[in-house]
Amino acid sequence: MIRLFANANYDFIKWRRWAYAITAAVIIPGFSLFLIRGLNYSIEFTGGTLIQVQTPEPVGPERIRGALDAAGIRDAEIQQFGAANEYVVRARIGRAGAVVEGLTETTAAAVDSALARALGPAPEHYKILRTEAVGPKVGRELQSKAFLAILLSFLVTLAYLAIRFEWRFGLAAVLATGHDILSTIAFIRYLDLEVSLVVVGAVLTMVGYSLNDTIIIFDRVRENLRKFRRQNLYEILNLSINETLPRSVLTHGTTMATTIALVLLAGEVLRPFALVMTFAIFTGTFSSIYIAAPLLMYIEKRWPGEDARGARALRPTGSVPLNPPPAAPEGGSGVRSKAAV
Amino acid sequence: MRTIRTRLLTIGALLVLAVWQLIPTNVTQRVRDPVTGRMKDTTIRRVPINLGLDLQGGIHLALEVDQSKGSVPDCADAIQRAEKVVRTRIDEFGTSEPVVQIQGRCRLIVELAGEKDPARAKSIIQRTAFLEFRITDMKNLFRDALPEIDKALRRAGVTAPGQGAAATSVTQLFGSDTGKAKGKAKVQKGKAAKDTTDQNAPGALSSLLFQGQIPGEYLVPEEQVPVAESLLARPDVQRLIPRGIELRWGTEVLSRAGRSYRSLYAGEDRPIITGEYLQDAKATRDPLTNQSVVNFVLSRRGGRIFERETGRHVNDYMAIILDGRVQGQPPVIKSQIGQRGQIELGAKPLQDAQDLALVLKAGALPAPLTIIEERTIGPSLGQDSIKDGIRAGIVGVALVVLIMVGYYRLSGVLAVAALALYVVFTLAGLAGFGFTLTLPGLAGLALSVGIAVDANVLIFERIREELQHGKLVRTAVDEGFKHAMSAIVDSNVSTALTAFILYLVGTGPVQGFAITLIIGIAASMVTAIFVVRTFYMIWLDRRPDMATLSV
User: Fold this and answer.
1) Cis peptide upstream of residue B349 (ω within 30 degrees of 0)
2) Contacts A–B by Cβ distance under 8 A
């Protein structure tokens, strides 16, 4: 029988300051870059036109750029998309002089005719696989909606956790999730991923997933606080993280297997989504252990609750073994070794 | 034993219900009859899961009542009428399962799944907007105002581009015009236009415009259209356009002497009649002349208005304006017209007449519509997406199965069996509630498979712990399920809450993702907890003396 991290006894909380340093080193440059340069929003958010073109032979983005330049369509981005013979042309509203408002539909037609002139007539020499034209109004609507969605999901989770646990747990969980959003924004900025609606969906799913993970650990903390009355919060947190470690490894392993399969196989449209999800699983796990748990400790210290053992000590007492020894009636690891059929 | 039986019966009933949702059923579709070319209802059998546009290809449009030219008092009512009109038109157009729905208060969503010719579909829908008939500028008021406009532009420092070349084009153009000998009066008017241009040359605007074949018609070289557009949009030019005259671009591109021109029409600013009085229009080919014609019928009231107006405007030209664009060349009003009229399109193909008839027939739109969002996905891209998505899904699921069985042995097999049920339940949920499976939805499905095993992982880890603490197998299983429950419920409920918010706030693809996630979470709770528990019960029932557990 395979057992990963069974009876693990790592002092996770001890390394919290290192974890803060690492996460700050990731988030601060990425987030400042985000504040300075913004994100690479898809035309769904900015408004504009996207055209995906397929040619029988790879012609290179320069050829397409030339075709568009000849037709006087400037300031459009041209990108190879997935296969070598597929390209995406993006003209966003709002980029200096890119597209005039209200002309989004005409842009698609203009690109079409420019390509026809440069490459030859449509079905033989090039094929338009997909066009998207979004007016500026829809883009603005979506921006505010995405923001609203993230805010609402925060409030709802906070309320739910306040009911199911208590507000200290809820606050720690939501703050850890806030950390995940920041680090995901930094990640998106580093890779310069295009932020489409689906990517926002991935960020929101990450909110759910990260909370999910934090809740699993907090659930164990809640239980262990009841079970071991003599240990302080530092030890309880470590114990709980260690106890849930096999589960974390397994669940994140399986989920990451699926998201990595999506990254590699699901095609170009879903790749940003899958990349964000893969990172989200990583950061969600990290923050549950290194952000949510220490935060809970600080919150308990600052505003002690009834059962606030965090206020008593931040350092392990060392007097009580962190992991209760397995009470094995048949001796040692007998149950386990026989367990495999 | 009794509880096992009831549990099995429940699972069986759920499975039957799920499979029943998924067996191919008869679906009514409107399909074009290959013989007559008409649309007719047919029934086909297929699995009742709706595929999103991104998976089967098609065109998605969001339309709104255009409020840029004065607000529409009741846009909800306007959009409702528009919806009706667009619906009938799309039905005629030939898409098997068109979606026309009102979103929010005054937005119309049109989805044409599997549409193979998006350009044509789009142009028809785009033209659904606003139909009006206007008399062209018969007194040449705009042309007479041109010198003033040129003067104003010269004062503003705008000069004519490439004056010499333009002058030769003028002569060429007029040469071909006179050759056609449309009528004495018109030719003379044309000459007059030429004179004025020459006197005041170089005129910034007039050098771009060439007199067309009918009064109020001008031709602008295709490459100069943006320049002309920007000049005409200037406020100082706008002020000088004569009162009662409005300029409208035509849809057609004409080619003369190797250059292409776009037509620009000066016409009265008030329509003599609008589309709301139109009742019917039919395209036919006149058997005698072999010309395409469109016959139209007006309402009784419209007939009276039209009779009065056409009586006043015999021999005048009438521009058919849709969405602010003049359709084809304005026909001449040959005589007073009442309720019934005919538009002759000459040697143009019947398709043009049919499209015009289509536009006229349902053209009673009360307000103009603008496209605010448009997505077209080619069918091949949809096919690729399905292929890639399914391949990624299968690989992902295979990895999950491998990990679960490798790590948890027989218990892992139970979890995988439950996972199979989970996939069936989720698909059935999508079909049963009539939700649409999109590409992000497919991703959500693959992702939720990963998340779905989480509940089982939690339970199995808990059972292992209990066994490690020396509990008997049966107790360990009971305790494992009991203790894992709070974590499972709390984590799933919080994920479902975020998915629900995603559904409420999101649109289209995001909603599809949220829905699959929510259904997936619900299904995974049932399978991971209830079904796996039942499997364990059967297992332990068969071997009550089991001392060890394969977990």
Assistant:
1) no
2) 259
All structural domains of chain A, each given as residue ranges with its CATH number in brackets, are: 13-41+139-302 (1.20.1640.10), 48-134 (3.30.70.3400)
State how far the alpha carbon of B218 is from the alpha carbons of A55, A294, B264, B330, in Å.
Answer: 39, 76, 5, 12
pLDDT at res. A33:
92
Q: How many residues does chain B have?
A: 551
Question: What is the structure's pLDDT at A118?
Answer: 82
Q: Which residue has the tokens 């031709």?
A: B219
Test B447 with A148 for CB contact under 8 angstroms: no
Rounded-to-integer distance, Cα A258 and Cα B448, Å: 9
For A216, the closest chain B residue by CA position comes to: B487
Q: Which amino acid is at B182?
A: K
What digits encode the pLDDT tens for the residues B57-110? 888 888 887 776 666 666 776 676 677 667 656 655 566 677 888 887 788 888
Task: Work out whether the CA dihedral B180, B182, B187, B188 comes out positive or negative.
Answer: positive
Structure-token pair, residue B534: 């039942």
In angstroms, the CA B159 to CA B155 distance is 9
Is the whole model's pTM more than 0.80, yes or no? Answer: no
- In this prediction, residue B346 carries a pLDDT of 78
Residue identified by tokens 């579709």 is: B29
Question: Which residue type sits at A11?
Answer: D
3-state secondary structure B405-423: HHHHHHHHHHHHHHHHHHH
CATH code, residues B2-22+378-542: 1.20.1640.10
Query: Which positions ≥6 away from B546 have C-beta within 8 Å?
Result: B473, B539, B540
Q: Among all residues of chain B, which has the CA nearest to that of A7?
A: B465
Structural domain boundaries in chain B? 2-22+378-542, 135-268, 273-364
Q: What is the identity of the amino acid at A336?
A: R
Nearest-by-CA chain B residue for A339: B548
Spatial contact of B143 and B193, defined as CB atoms under 8 Å apart: yes
CA-based nearest residue to B396, from B429, B344, B443, B433: B443
Contact residues for A66 (Cβ-Cβ < 8 A; gap 6+)? A118
Is the Cβ of B517 closer than 8 Å to some Cβ of chain A?
A: yes
How far B486 CA sits from the closest chain A CA (Å)? 7
B53 and B59 Cβ atoms separated by less than 8 Å: yes
Contacts of A156 in chain B (CB under 8 A): 497-498, 501
The sign of the dihedral angle between the CA atoms of B260, B262, B266, B271 is positive
Q: Check A208 against B497: CB less than 8 A apart.
A: yes
CB contact A208 to B (< 8 Å): yes
Q: Is B181 on the interface with A (CB under 8 A)?
A: no
Closest CA relative to residue A341, chosen from B297, B548, B63: B548
Q: Is B395 on the interface with A (CB under 8 A)?
A: yes
CB A131, CB B374: distance < 8 Å = yes
> Residue for token digits 């400042």?
A32
Interface residue B410 vs chain A (CB under 8 A): yes
Amino acid identity at B52: G
Do the chains contact at B374 and A132, CB–CB below 8 Å?
yes
Whether the CB of B520 is below 8 Å from some CB of chain A: the reply is no
> Cβ contact (<8 Å) for B440 and A270?
yes
Which distant-in-sequence residues (6+ apart) come within 8 Å of B138 by Cβ?
A: B215, B216, B316, B317
Question: Encoding tokens for residue A327?
Answer: 């009470």
The partner residue sitting opposite A340, judged by closest CB among B54, B457, B550, is: B550
Question: Who among A1, A244, A254 is closest to B403 (CB)?
Answer: A254
The tens digit of pLDDT for each residue in B422-448 reads 989 988 988 888 788 887 787 777 777
Sign of CA dihedral B524, B527, B529, B532: negative
**CB-based burial label for B136 (10 Å; 0-12, 13-18, 19+):** buried
CATH class of B273-364: alpha beta
Say how far apart CA B294 and CA B357 lie, in whole Å.
6
